[in-house]
Amino acid sequence: MSAHVGANPEVLASHGLSRLADFRIIPRIETYPRIVEFVQKLAGKLLILALFGAGLYFATDDWLPLTLCLALITFWPSRRRLLVTVATLIFTFAVPWTKFPHPLYTSTLILFVIAIGALLFWCAVAWPRSVVGRHPIVVLLIGYSLLIAFAAYFPNTTRLYLTVWDFTYTFGIYLWFIGYSLLDRRSADRDSFSLQLGTYRPFWGSTATPFPKGASYLRRIEAKDPRQLAVVQLKGLKLLAWSLMISVFSKYFGLFLHDYLAIPTFDQTFYRSVMHAPYPSYVCWASLASAFLEDILVMCVWGHRFIACCRMAGFNALRNTYRPLSSRSISEFWNRYYFYFKELLAEFFFYPAFMRFFKSHRKLRLVTATFAAAFFGNVFYHFCRDLKFIATLGLWKAITGFHVYAFYCFLLATGISISQLRASRPKPSGFLRARVVPVISVALFYMLINIFAYLGRDYPISEHFRYFFHLFQFNS
Amino acid sequence: MEPKAEVRQFVQELLSRKGDRQPFSDSDSLLLGGRLESVDAVDIVVFLEEKFHIDFAEVGFDQTLIDSVDAIDSLIQTVKK
Known about the structure:
Number of helices of chain A: 23
Largest interface: A-B, 26 and 20 residues
Number of domains of chain B: 1
Structural class of chain A: mainly alpha
Shape of chain A: globular
Distance between the termini of chain A: 63 Å
Order of helices and strands of chain B: HHHH
Helix content of chain B: 55-70%
Helix content of chain A: over 70%
CATH class of chain B: Mainly Alpha
Number of strands of chain B: 0
Largest sheet of chain B: none
Mean pLDDT of chain A: 92
Radius of gyration of chain B: 12 Å
Low-confidence stretches of chain A: 1-7
Radius of gyration of chain A: 24 Å
Oligomer: heterodimer
Strand content of chain B: under 5%
Largest sheet of chain A: none
Shape of chain B: globular
Strand content of chain A: under 5%
CATH topology of chain B: Non-ribosomal Peptide Synthetase Peptidyl Carrier Protein, Chain A
């Protein structure tokens, strides 16, 4: 066989390409039997924890308590889920205690929100035929919307004004975590609330988006035996190393772009456009492309770190960002760029809409569900997350000022819908048409719509269009 | 054809459409394991609605219900009863 390969240049070339494709900067150590065997032993566990702790040292200030919690879970896997709850409580109250401006006050608010989450969960489980039992997510999201409206119109001359806003803000932080608990209410193997609590801003880190989803997902991906745990932990260690490497690369990449090549940031080029003194269009293109790439790198750094810690705790979670630049369709990029946010929108908006509306019209059904998630869900999530605008501008101005981001969501939902509808069409052949053109088109689409992905309220949509048209030199 | 065999064949087609020709067992997690995506879940849902008349608005949808061939088969059996 090897002689044959050696004699045929085409086979040799394809063999070389496949070896290149299989090349890994970090080797797949989780597939090496001797390493997997070693990590199951005491010395191996200590070594992997030490290496992981050393990696965390460069990634987060809380590396020591995080490593200690991971060590506890590593050495007591039979109590993993309960220990996740304990570690999460430690990271909710004890670790940030000195960082809270008013520790007792903040802790009380968090406890109150958790209590409401527990009450909702308990009601949904105890009375499955009640409104809360049948539509707990609707109750949760409408309830939270009403709370925001209440806070927005609460008289700001009263002593309770700040407390109302602090409570609304705290509730917002936990909103989607409580939501995932409620989604778990019907599962046959549903967890008790004490275990659900471990997924409420888990100790390995999360944004307002739960990483990695809720208790139902954790049950499915939990390591079942010492061998699985060793493999998952090795994957976690690799992912942390990858996160650190990207972090270093991102830093020097940024310096190269902005210092050496002197490409301004997107914010700088946008501001100059608003001031009617735009940079040349090729500079704007360069800043747009660099912002797009830097966003992906930043997303990889923290997303990989959260998932690395989650894996180290024994849960084989999927990566948050996975090769987004290899996406050949808009919907594929959407799936690969920020996986857990996409999953949140799918679970809370896409599937409910898909299961209920336009069942006999397949295309309309898909488009409606996609708009429910990528448009409505996306708008709702970000509007409720950035409460400072409502608190400072008032509810109505905060809503009207959000039109730019709503337009971005509309473009996104339209792009994803078209991409999904075209998915069943035959794929083009040839390297250029099948790979290069789609990948560049997808990147271009996201780069351009990012002009409108503006969460602030200072500039109207006309300024974003001005920037957009300037790229094509339509208004110069 | 048995429902389970039909489901398996459909899932196999779904995977091969994505260029995934790796073997899979009936208990393998496909959605939560990352081999299939939410868009593929939609295809599975439509397949189950059309072939086995499962109404997810009634049953209540959860990705775990259609995460593996075994899970789908068990869902079909439950709905049949």
